[in-house]
Design brief:
Number of strands: 9
Strand order of the largest sheet: 1-9-8-7-6-5-4
Strand content: 35-45%
Structural class: alpha+beta
Radius of gyration: 19 Å
Shape: globular
Distance between the termini: 47 Å
Number of helices: 5
Largest sheet: 7 strands, antiparallel
Amino acid sequence: VIKASFDCSCVRLYNLVFSDQPSEHRGKEFRNFLTWTKESNGDTEITNTQWSPPPPKSIVDCEEMNLEERLKDLLKAPGKSSRVFNYTHPVKEQSMFVPKNCPIEEKQNMLWLGLDELIMYSESKSFKVPLSDCFVVRNSFTVRNIDTNKCELIWKLGIEFVKSTMFKAKITKSVQDENLEIAQKVVSLMKAKVSEDLETKNQIIPKAI
């Protein structure tokens, strides 16, 4: 489990990190923030569908709506949206019978619980690697407001075996170690993104004379 706090609301964190909006980093524009994090971790051939059904307007265009309008919109909006990432991931442990990389399909689901809490959970399957059909990797992300303009992320990492294998312990350790390493890097990138957003807002706000 990884816990991290951010100086923004959970809705703002969604728009910065989990949305379909383009994200620019070091002068290069990416399809979205998570595409950038995956590329930063060595993934290639990254594609993804957009959230379907589309996220509630009260989440995406929150600054253009008052609180009453946002709550009404959220009540009539779908409770869940889904999208799928496909990408090629470098295989960490190399041997004669293991390829240098493998395709991964990552299904993501976002639960629209309210303006103060969001939950995203994902299921990732790898292919063309020995024993990859024996397990799926599951992650859950709970983001909730803990103060004004402050939220907390709880990221749970897990692995589920769908077939028995005598290498269960080795696979579990390998997957958990790599997932933890990736997650820690992604959280660092998320914090940098939020800090960058705050700096931009501070530059826009006129200073008192």
